[in-house]
């Protein structure tokens, strides 16, 4: 059935602004019937016609458990054929993402998880419009990815360049601080990366010998080649459509 989530949110928000989100909640047997009757895609199209700019989510309860139970019943008692055929739910759920814009799904194990998701979603959507909008310089929720035991956590929170470095996957806070001490701004590092007189190899390993600082001061450890190469490839990536791991592996250098 079509949830009244978008209506309830109007009552929760003081401004009374409409939240562009539609949640459809289905029990497992209901959803399976939609898939078996091949009517789910038509329903999605109708919902998108009514709410063209909205995000649509299909929320199912105990879907896979229901399918497994029906399959087991048929396997244990094949003589009692009640016409059950396992519906291609995984294929259909994939099509929700690939064939439509802003349409996705969520499977819940039981009623408790379903209720928790609905409550969390409702509260999140009701409050998100009042949060400060992120900019291109807003990185990792104000540095929340920094480990609690890192001494200079406040330093990273107050420095946009350090937060940007920490946002790079696998770049630890102390790695970021080591880079920051040598190159205190992004511009200072990019100016070297964009130097036409330096080779790509030199730029990739530019940071490898930067000293790391531990709890007891300077350690006899260096940033290393892996981290140096990762920072260079992420900051100098040309395509925003490829995955971070692919950028780190050098995919950006081989694109057409």
Keywords:
disordered N terminus; three-stranded parallel beta sheet; elongated; single chain; 49% helix; 256 residues; two-stranded antiparallel ribbon; 14 helices; mainly alpha
How would you sum up the major sheet?
Answer: 3 strands, parallel
- How many E strands? 5
* Percentage beta strand: 5-15%
Q: N- to C-terminal separation? A: 47 Å
Write out the strand line-up for the largest beta sheet, numbering strands in chain order. Answer: 1-2-3
- Broad shape: elongated
Mean pLDDT, to the nearest integer, reads: 78
Poorly predicted segments: 1-15, 139-144
Order of helices and strands: HEHHEHHEHHHHHHHEEHH
Radius of gyration: 25 Å
Counting H and I runs of at least 4 residues, what is the number of helices?
14
Helix content: 40-55%
Coarse structural class: mainly alpha
Would you write up a description of this structure?
This protein is mainly alpha-helical and 256 residues long. The protein is built from 14 helices and 5 strands. The chain has helices at residues 5-12, 28-36, 40-50, 63-76, 89-98, 111-128, 140-143, 153-157, 160-167, 173-182, 186-193, 200-204, 225-235, 244-248, and strands spanning 21-27, 55-61, 103-108, 211-214, 217-222. The strands form 2 sheets. It has a 3-stranded parallel β-sheet with strand order 1-2-3, with helices on both faces. Strands 4-5 form a two-stranded antiparallel ribbon. A hairpin with a 2-residue loop joins strand 4 and strand 5. It is elongated and about 75 Å long. The model is unreliable at 1-15 and 139-144 (pLDDT under 50).
């Amino acid at each position: 059935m079509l949830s009244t989530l978008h209506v309830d949110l109007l009552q929760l928000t003081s401004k009374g602004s409409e939240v562009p989100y539609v949640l459809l909640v289905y029990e497992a047997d209901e959803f399976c019937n939609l898939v078996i009757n091949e009517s789910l895609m038509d329903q999605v199209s109708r919902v998108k016609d009514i709410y063209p700019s909205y995000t649509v989510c299909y929320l199912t309860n105990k879907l896979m458990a229901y399918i497994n139970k029906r399959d087991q019943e048929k396997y244990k008692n094949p003589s009692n054929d009640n016409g059950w055929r396992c519906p291609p739910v995984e294929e259909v759920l994939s099509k929700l993402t690939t064939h439509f814009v802003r349409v996705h799904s969520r499977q819940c194990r039981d009623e408790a998880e379903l209720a928790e998701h609905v409550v969390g979603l409702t509260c999140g959507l009701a409050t998100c419009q009042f949060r400060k909008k992120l900019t291109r310089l807003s990185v990792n929720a104000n540095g929340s990815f920094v480990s609690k035991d890192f001494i200079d956590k406040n330093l990273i929170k107050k420095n946009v360049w350090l937060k940007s470095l920490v946002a790079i996957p696998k770049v630890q806070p102390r790695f970021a601080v080591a880079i920051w001490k040598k190159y205190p701004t992004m511009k200072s590092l990019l100016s070297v990366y964009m130097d036409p007189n330096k080779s790509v190899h030199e730029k990739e390993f530019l940071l490898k010998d930067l000293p790391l600082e531990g709890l007891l001061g300077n350690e006899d450890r260096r940033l290393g080649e892996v981290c140096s190469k990762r920072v260079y490839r992420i900051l100098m990536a040309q395509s925003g459509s490829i995955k971070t791991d692919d950028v780190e592996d050098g995919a950006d250098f081989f694109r057409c």
